[in-house]
Amino acid sequence: MPIYEYWCDSCCRIISSYRHGLSMPPPPCPRCGNNELKRIFSTFSVQKTYKDIYEDILSDRELTQSMIRDDPRAIAEWNRRMSSGEKSPPEYEEITERMERGELPVTQIEEKRKELSG
Ligand SMILES: [Zn+2]
Questions:
Q1: Closest CA to 74 of 61, 88, 85
Q2: Where are the domains of the chain?
Q3: What is the pLDDT of residues 41-97, one digit of tens each?
Q4: Cα 47 to averaged position of ligand 1 atoms, centre (Å)
Q5: Residue 79, Cβ neighbours under 10 Å: how many?
Q6: What DSSP string runs through 22-90?
Q7: How far, in Å, is the centroid of ligand 1 from the Cα of 10?
């Protein structure tokens, strides 16, 4: 059974949980009872492709909005998620490099969003 990891906004901590599958709702936070945990990717979980990771990040409205607000925590979360991928296609490396230079790749995010949405 795969381990999924969740993020509790209230406690600012990661909760690991065994789940039967992604269709299962996230568990409540064992510490504060918050039942709106956000799923994050774990190296223990099923290997995701970069596209999957991207889709997940882009579907996380809070994260993308935080990134647009230049929130370093969101940027760190982005990096963390991206680095959990197996491969590093050139377009993603470029984005990571730009972020390391302190630039927010908002344009690329928007382009990628369009591309992924068809
Ligand atoms: Zn909590």
A1: 61
A2: 3-40, 50-117
A3: 654 444 556 677 777 777 888 888 887 787 777 877 777 777 665 455 566 667 666
A4: 26
A5: 13
A6: TTSPPPPPTTT--S-PEEE--TTS----HHHHHHHHHH-HHHHHHHHTT-HHHHHHHHHHHHTSS---H
A7: 5
CA of 16 to the centre of ligand 1 (A): 12
Q: Which amino acid belongs to residue 105? A: P
Distance CA 74, CA 77 (A): 5
CB 86 within 8 A of CB 47: yes
- pLDDT bracket for residue 33 (50, 70, 90): very high
Cα of 11 to ligand 1 centre, how many Å? 4
